[in-house]
Design a protein that fits this description.
CATH architecture of one domain: Alpha Horseshoe
Pfam family, one: SNAP
Function: Required for vesicular transport between the endoplasmic reticulum and the Golgi apparatus.
Subunit structure: Interacts with RAB11FIP5. Interacts with VTI1A.
Bound molecules: 2-acetamido-2-deoxy-beta-D-glucopyranose
Structural class: mainly alpha
Strand content: under 5%
Organism: Callorhinchus milii (Ghost shark)
Radius of gyration: 29 Å
Membrane topology: Peripheral membrane protein
Length: 329
């Protein structure tokens, strides 16, 4: 249906005189614009002189869907926002408006609306829905704003954690750790990985704890903190099944190679399937791991020789008075 925008504007301003009708008039206009013929369904509403926000909201919802189907995302977003505003509790409408902004590639604004929706979900006692909304917002923004995505996944993880939904929480923490590694925020990644590992321990998923230990060690070695890396491995021996596992054996060899500045040994371990088929962010850490001292092997005759150049001397000193209190492992 063709429509004349001028007519629409005139119609709108004429009906401004009747504020009670305004909500409905806007809906009618939406339908006109949507090439729809639902006007008759509103006629009972027109008999009322008081604004009826509930039915306005549901009409906006229908209009929004119609716009969405017509791929007119800007109008759909406006309709969803109007739906959300005319219906006090309509959190889902805010989220939907956010999704329309996503279609328009306005990701920052989309995420703001979804966050707003998730706050309302929490206030209204549906934290699971809130966490899932935050997770979706994180996915939207991940490719353009890593830091924002980290923040959203962290929020979602703690909402689930508060609900004692540890499986959901730890899955989101996994995303947090990976993205922190991707953005080279390795100190924070170490903290996040420790939290992840402890949570997997709590839900008794031990094999995943072993994989998390590998990730921890890679992060700590990239931070040039051999002592922390070693501590992560020692600590894992308290987890059932770690001693003697392929993960434990590979990690001991990796630590040994790193300690002896044997780049060949380190590269061999880091190129093994165990490391190569980890999540891409960790596999990349493995492939880029370089031993200190530029790969000049320590001479077994004089083990102290290279220690000063690696930062290990300081680390070993710290180990003496601070054996288990660093908190990273
Ligand atoms: C691992 O197991 C072996 C024998 O099964 C034992 O001798 C060794 O002490 C264990 N290592 C640790 C660190 O628990």
């Amino acid at each position: 249906m063709k429509y004349n925008l001028g007519t629409v504007v005139v119609l709108l301003s004429a009906l401004k005189c009747y504020p009670a009708w305004r909500e409905h008039v806007v809906v009618v206009l939406y339908y006109l614009l949507c090439n729809s013929c639902y006007i008759f369904s509103l006629k009972t509403s027109f008999m009322k002189w008081k604004p009826d926000y509930d039915s306005a909201a549901s009409e906006y919802a229908k209009a929004a869907v119609a716009f969405k189907n017509a791929k007119q995302y800007d109008q759909a977003k406006d309709a969803y926002l109007r739906e959300a505003e005319s219906h006090q509790n309509n959190r889902a409408a805010y989220e939907q408006a956010g999704m329309m902004l996503k279609e328009m590639q306005q990701l920052g604004e989309a995420v703001l609306l979804i966050e707003k929706a998730s706050m309302m979900f929490i206030e209204n006692g549906t934290p699971d829905t809130a966490a899932m909304a935050l997770d979706r917002a994180g996915k939207l923004i991940e490719n353009v704003n890593l830091n924002k995505a980290v923040e959203l996944y962290q929020q979602a993880a703690s909402v689930f954690e508060n609900e004692e939904r540890l499986r959901q929480s730890v899955e989101l923490l996994g995303k947090v750790s990976r993205l922190l590694v991707r953005s080279r925020r390795l100190d924070e990644a170490a903290v996040s990985l420790l939290k992840e590992k402890n949570m997997y321990k709590e839900i008794e998923n031990y094999p995943t704890c072993f994989k998390k230990t590998i990730a921890q060690v890679l992060v700590q070695l990239h931070r040039n903190d051999y002592v922390a890396a070693d501590k992560c491995v020692r600590e894992s021996y308290s987890i059932p099944g770690f001693n003697g596992s392929e993960d434990a054996i590979a990690l001991e060899q990796l630590l040994e190679g790193f300690d002896e500045q044997d780049q060949d040994q380190v590269s061999a371990i880091c190129n093994s399937p165990l490391f190569k088929y980890m999540d891409n962010d960790y596999a990349k850490l493995a492939l880029s791991l370089r031993v200190p001292g530029g790969g000049v092997k320590k001479s077994p005759a004089s083990p102290q020789e290279a220690a000063g150049t690696t930062g290990k001397a300081a680390s070993h000193a710290a180990e003496d008075d601070d054996e288990y209190s660093s908190g990273l492992c």
